[in-house]
Automatic annotation (TrEMBL):
It catalyses: N-terminal L-alanyl-[ribosomal protein bS18] + acetyl-CoA = N-terminal N(alpha)-acetyl-L-alanyl-[ribosomal protein bS18] + CoA + H(+). It comes from the Bacteria. The keyword Cytoplasm applies. This is [Ribosomal protein bS18]-alanine N-acetyltransferase. Its main location: cytoplasm. It comes from Campylobacter iguaniorum. Its EC number is 2.3.1.266. Belongs to the acetyltransferase family. RimI subfamily. SUPFAM superfamilies: Acyl-CoA N-acyltransferases (Nat) (SSF55729). It is found in: Cytoplasm.
Amino acid sequence: MLNLQQANLSDISELCELENSVFDEFNFPLSKANFRYHIQKNYLIKAVYDEQIWGYILVLIKFKVPRIYSLAVSNKARGKGVGKALIQKVCDDFVRLRLEVRADNQNAISLYEKFGFKTQKIIKNYYPDSCDALEMTKAQDAF
Ligand SMILES: CC(C)(COP(=O)(O)OP(=O)(O)OC[C@H]1O[C@@H](n2cnc3c(N)ncnc32)[C@H](O)[C@@H]1OP(=O)(O)O)[C@@H](O)C(=O)NCCC(=O)NCCS
């Protein structure tokens, strides 16, 4: 069964390995130091199956509207509902959320739309390879 739990410091190496298998240099992969910081200061949930981390989601909680900063599911675990389970968890735990996503990442955009996220604006050339970002928010009527 898939288990969702707050990550802890002993997960850093495994999270970093997952991160580097999912994100290339154009997608700001988090370093071990970044994971150490976020585990201690932010909300970082891991999805564990069979004692392995299949995915994680990171929410920066110090903003007025908490920001989903990263979401990753390992290549071998894709399409099994891990991403949906992680988004469901943060939607249960936060009333309002915002995020940026690459305009060419249709899988992620469809996933966020399923949970009621709506595009607020397009940020031109947001990523190092000049790709635009969509800024998406949930419960925008409450803003
Ligand atoms: C985006 C990502 C997190 C989805 O995780 P996942 O566990 O494979 O997703 P799920 O199995 O929970 O699928 C959830 C929804 O995502 C969308 N989706 C996921 N994979 C898809 C694919 N290959 N094609 C089309 N839609 C897809 C669908 O809307 C799907 O809903 P459905 O099953 O009802 O059709 C995963 O593909 C990933 O880690 N991608 C690389 C990192 C990334 O893009 N992160 C988001 C950055 S903001």
